[in-house]
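Q: What would this chain look like folded?
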Amino acid sequence: MLFMGAHLFLSLLILYHILIPTSIGEKSLDLQLEIADSPAERTQGLSDRVSLPDDSGMLFIFDEPGYYSFWMKNMNFPLDIIWLDENWRVVWIDENILPETYPALFNPPSPIKFVLEINTGKARELELRLGERVSLPATIPELDSGQ
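A: My prediction, written as structure tokens:
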């Protein structure tokens, strides 16, 4: 049963090319993203995993924009959390969130519709800035982003 679960997890990962256009050019990152778009998937998130491969992340998709809280319950590695509004603009970045911060809650300063969790250091590597728009390919079936 465990083997089948691991196989299912791997089959849900899809490579996406993420672009961040800026005034000085585009920055990009290729990530294997797992989509969390149901209440159960969003609740589980990356909890109970030993690690996150360097080129991977999780994209949380909410039905409506709102103020959603995240925590590091049962996490085993630090994360960068990128909060995105319904137009894919970066509204906040929490960097290097450690598992030891649990039970602290992390919240965006304004309503969001998407959250991207990536390995610590990736947000800095991309030089993400507040207000920048993140572009994901329109081929993500769960999205109706109007990009």
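The beta strands are 14-22, 25-36, 56-66, 79-84, 90-97, 112-119.
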